[in-house]
Every structure is written in C-alpha cells, then in structure tokens.
Amino acid sequence: MKATHMGTCQVCHAGQKLPKGHLSTHGYTVNLGWFTGECRGSHRLPVELSCDVVRESIDITIDAIVRKENKINEVENSTTTYYYERNRFRGIKPIRMEAPVDKTDPDNWTYEQNKVINSNHSCKGIFQVRAVTERDVANSKESYVMKLRREIRAMNNYITAQAAAVENWEPKPLTEIK
C-alpha cells in the first residue's frame, strides 16, 4: 500500500512515510549488503498520533545511563585491563575491546594481549611488540571514561528533549504527501 501521509518518529524525530498508518522502516545502515540496526520507532505510530514510544525511550535511556555509570565504576577500579578500539570491518563503527594485562610476568603474553599490542603499535605492516605499561593502562582507562561520560551527557540531553515532548504533547494532523 502506497503511503499517503508523512509523520514524525517518536524516537529519532525523523520525518517518515506512513504506509498502513505506521512509520516505515528507518534508522538502519547497509554494510556488506546486509541491513544493520533499525530505529526503535519503526513500524510504530508517529508522534502526531501518540507519545507512548517517547515514554518508553526515556525509560530505556535511563537504563542505559545506569549501565554506563556502572561501567565507569568498573573501569576506574580496574588496574589490570587495557581498553582499546578495534575496527571489525571497513565501514563499520569500531567496537570497544578489553584485554587483561598480566603484570606478574611481562614476558608471558596471552593471545589477547598480543592482539592488543600488534593492533595498536604497528609501523608499515611490521608489528612492533612492546609491553603494555601501567601508563598505557591508565591512558586507556582515562580515554574510555571520557567517552562514556560524553555518551551519558548526550543521553541526558535526549531525555530532556523527550520529556519536554511528552509534557507538551497533543495530537496533531499528519502531513499529506502530494
């Protein structure tokens, strides 16, 4: 069925067509020929007709903030973990990795430690192996905590905007597609 109206997503606030009265699939990326991810507001009513998903998104974001704050406490209290980012495939967002550092025997590297060293300290394809120092661990922790705190600030801003949307919500007419 061809969409006759447009509406606004309750989660990401993007304008979307409304086939069969619900938002179309959106918020995904295509990598290596596969669809990855989808906005939580896909296939739901637009904000012009409902704000139920807005309330859900606030609760989900609050839960995510709690998990990130717990992760910050874990990272700050760790003395033996090296945090780093590693690209999985070209074009896909890097993922955060953690590798244990055995301080008792710097010559006894685990497989994961070798991956850390080889991925982070290479020169023109020739791997330079060196021990992960306490300063490396401290720098990696500081960088990771800063990243988590930035994400928490962005989530708090999102909650503020979504709470204002719920507070001022009233039904509105949909935009007709001409």
Structure description:
The chain has 3 helices and 9 strands, in the order E-E-E-E-H-E-E-H-E-E-H-E. Mean pLDDT is 81; it is low at 108-115 and 117-129. The longest helix is centred in the last third of the chain and has 34 residues, at 134-167. It is an alpha+beta fold. Strands 2-1-9 form a 3-stranded antiparallel sheet, with no helix packed on it. Helix 1 runs antiparallel to helix 3. Strand 7 and strand 8 form a beta hairpin. The chain has one domain (5-176). The protein has helices at residues 52-77, 111-120, 134-167; strands at residues 5-8, 15-17, 29-31, 34-36, 81-86, 95-100, 122-123, 126-127, 175-176. The radius of gyration is 22 Å and the shape is elongated.
Attribute tags:
39% helix; three-stranded antiparallel beta sheet; alpha+beta; two-stranded antiparallel sheet
